[in-house]
């Protein structure tokens, strides 16, 4: 049994509920490895657990689902990983810590040539972009798409990836700086949602046809307008709710707007099978190593300052990806 530093909360609420604490770190159990974390990724799902939108399995709770580090010990029966391996993961609760045990079913090997900090910054966001563009809707050269929060962590990756797939890529952002950032990362058009109607602008850009698919992580503030951007039989992919949950959704709204489709996907369903996780991570590593997708680590915070990081994320002060450094 050793000790490690971690961030936990014992009650839900704002960023002030976090406590920087020392916790016990037992030896890894069967099927686990222990890792020394180089960096932890910050994601909006962490906010949802902290504020109670998603229910924590127990309290106190160490949140965080994404990180990368080096294996320091292995539990009984582990064969695919050894001490010294560089590894990364997404989907394993407890990331807000300097050291931790992780079930190997969540882990992938980080290829040579990709820094651990980069891996920590891109696993959850990058595999989200992967499944959205390759599996939720198969994006290709004929696709015209709308991606909200274009300058966010998923948005910057998705814009570059979609452009590499040959799509026409439309995004939304809330400031001139964010618009310029998105335009530099694959987007053909970026709409300022604060000053313009993104529905009207999408109709203008597409000659009144609408888009094939809308990727929406905003939720309440962009609904039902996102539906109004779609062409008949288009797909509404709602994969987050940073502005709050969508309310008063009716199936009739899909019929009225042209036999639309709607889905509420999550990464963790798309990588639940071990081979799907491996394939998704490989696709992500490959496109990053091809230099078609650049990972932007635009903010870093010491782990003990996670409250400030959450505050900045929630007030949309951040762009690209954010790391917490233990």
UniProtKB/TrEMBL annotation:
Gene Ontology MF term list: mRNA 3'-UTR AU-rich region binding; NADPH binding; quinone reductase (NADPH) activity
Documented EC number(s): 1.6.5.5
Domain spans labelled Enoyl reductase (ER): 13-324
CDD domains for the chain: QOR2
GO cellular component: cytosol
Highest taxon above the source species: Bacteria
InterPro entries: ADH-like_C, ADH-like_N, ER, GroES-like_sf, NAD(P)-bd_dom_sf, QOR-like
Gene3D superfamilies per the UniProt record, alphabetical: Medium-chain alcohol dehydrogenases, catalytic domain, NAD(P)-binding Rossmann-like Domain
Keyword terms, alphabetized: NADP, Oxidoreductase
Protein name per its UniProtKB record: Quinone oxidoreductase
Organism for this UniProt entry: Rhizobium johnstonii (strain DSM 114642 / LMG 32736 / 3841)
Primary gene name: qor1
